[in-house]
Amino acid sequence: DSGVTQTPKHLITATGQRVTLRCSPRSGDLSVYWYQQSLDQGLQFLIQYYNGEERAKGNILERFSAQQFPDLHSELNLSSLELGDSALYFCASTKGGGADYEQFFGPGTRLTVL
Amino acid sequence: AQSVTQLDSHVSVSEGTPVLLRCNYSSSYSPSLFWYVQHPNKGLQLLLKYTSAATLVKGINGFEAEFKKSETSFHLTKPSAHMSDAAEYFCVVSGRGGADGLTFGKGTHLIIQP
């Protein structure tokens, strides 16, 4: 158990809908990363937050957004969902903001868009 | 910009024989390099990391990797495979102090034959 929690574990929804994925980092970790894992794209970095501020941005679509709250949990919002958004979404947390820190991954949220 | 190429999508070895998972990277900056492992239906776990210290890096569970700048390689090895090593392995690069996030390879599926 990494200490990172993600809810829900599974999510099934329809095209055009909006969903919110939640991540709670390990106690004491200030940084949260979001990743998307799909069969065709592999594992892709989406976005990083550090202590409430956006730190780095990867291949995140404009339909997706994220935020980190004062208690350091983070939410990833996916809107206008398409079939291709079906994937496993991971969050990871680290103590510091640099990518040299070991990232501790949550178990993931599996999103299925029908 | 940075990229990672894992040269084999699948590697099959017999239990007790050596493991070699190959990774080549490209980075405009001095990279930090990682190997992560993902067991079925689990999140990712850090095996080892290179951050410009010793070029031979030892990780958990008997794995090690050697950073070779001249060959832009970071191959993962283990002297003797165990059945529990069966998993997906990802080579990962970060650059510019993490400002560009992490870039993952496509993964190598390691199969251990009894």
Query: Helical element count of chain A?
Result: 0
Main sheet summary of chain B:
6 strands, mixed
Query: N- to C-terminal separation of chain A?
Result: 31 Å
Alpha-beta content class of chain B: mainly beta
Mean pLDDT of chain B: 90
- The percentage helix of chain A is under 10%
Order of helices and strands of chain B: EEEEEEEEEEEE
Query: What integer is the average pLDDT of chain A?
Result: 93
General form of chain A: globular
User: Could you name the ranges of chain B where pLDDT drops below 50 across 5 or more consecutive residues?
Assistant: none
Chain pair with largest interface: A-B, 25 and 21 residues
Shape of chain B: globular
- What radius of gyration of chain B results from the CA coordinates? 13 Å
Q: How many extended strands of chain A?
A: 11
Q: Could you spell the SSE succession of chain A in H and E letters?
A: EEEEEEEEEEE
- The residue ranges of chain A in which pLDDT falls below 50 over 5 or more consecutive positions are none
Task: Report strand % of chain B.
Answer: over 45%
Estimated helix fraction of chain B: under 10%
User: Which range does the strand content of chain A fall in?
Assistant: over 45%
